[in-house]
Specification:
The protein is an alpha/beta fold. It has three domains: 170 residues, ANL, N-terminal domain (Rossmann fold), CATH 3.40.50; 127 residues, ANL, N-terminal domain (Rossmann fold, 3-Layer(aba) Sandwich); 52 residues. It contains twelve helices and 15 strands. Helix 6 links the parallel strand 3 and strand 4. Helix 5 crosses helix 6, helix 8 packs parallel to helix 9 and helix 11 runs antiparallel to helix 12.
Amino acid sequence: MYWEAEKECIGRESLRQLQLERLQSTVVRVYMNVPFYRKKFDELGIDPDSFRSLEDVNKLPFTSKDDLRMSYPYGMFAVPLREVVRVQTSSGTTGMPTAVGYTRNDIKIWSNLAARILAAGGVTQNDIVQIAFDYGLFTGALGLHYGAERLGASVIPISSVNARRQVKIMQDFKTTALMCTPGYALLIADAIMEMGINVNSMSLKYGLFGAEPWSEAMRNELQEKLRIVATDNYGLSEVMSPGVAGECQERNGLHINEDHFLVEVVDPETLDPLPEGKTGELVVTTLTKEAFPVIRFRTRDLTSLITGPCPCGRTFIRISPQFIFSCSNLYWMPRLFHSASIAESNMTACPRFFERYWQTAAGVTPSLSAASRWLRPWLLMSATASSLRIAGSLFHRIISQGVRCTTPHRSFPI
């Protein structure tokens, strides 16, 4: 199913022309309105009116999360504050948070892109959507909320309450689509089993999961335990979350909303562009954001691009569903991961953190006691918000099976 079929199935040549026009507009706008970019462009001798092809994006400077932090809270805004109708922030788990602003048009676009992702995952106006992400400054819950309402679905904004409460609401309101992290979805699946409920008696059909990496084995378990079609989606607070990319029901890659985002994959050490199929760091340039445009933002997430046709008919390129993992999560584990340019082949040779998330190359899962030891640095050392959400899910799965584990320094929903 499509939300905006004429845009999601646009011809590649027409798309490239649209991207170029929007890139040209964005480059001029950030030069005129964002002091950080004006200074960078002047230092590099970049004329914002000189862009004639998409390949010219390689001339532009990268933007890092540290750059955004240095401009906190309003230094990167490209419009007067009176035009900003929403301000949200990242979690700040790795330092000072980053603030993101939205104009009314930004909110409208965000809602449409989230609606695209929901529709690609199977959700329609006839569905009842249960959103089990935290509401507040975190963008995920509100983005999905807007998208579901834009689609015409009924929304249950339950947030991240006790898993048994989630199950009760699902039964009472006949929820058909669940949206949360995959780790939390497993907790809900476990709660259904513990409560002695026949999952076939429930109305669930779809699960749209994001905000943490997950494996195909974990997808299969969720689909089996919850009797759903489980799809992945991707976003980040500094760009848009959710709304950057999402899987269709073919589940063979996450379609990038390329009419709004220009993406590259680069070597995270040399910053050289990488060809299709090569794993590297995802870099995103926004093409339509008004309040908070970003140029070549380094996501620190590792993935690869898929450009072949998808049976669903969408023409947007995809990012690999097999490997999206934050580079910044690796630095505090030097014995296992030696650099940010790690390839998936290196990871499969190392013990994975916990059952359903990773396995050893020999297919042996680590013991629960071993997992609890692995969890201590995961929780206590500098890590991204995504890794902390994973840690919360792992922590609760460990303690639910009676294994004593270091108490986390923050709370997670159970």
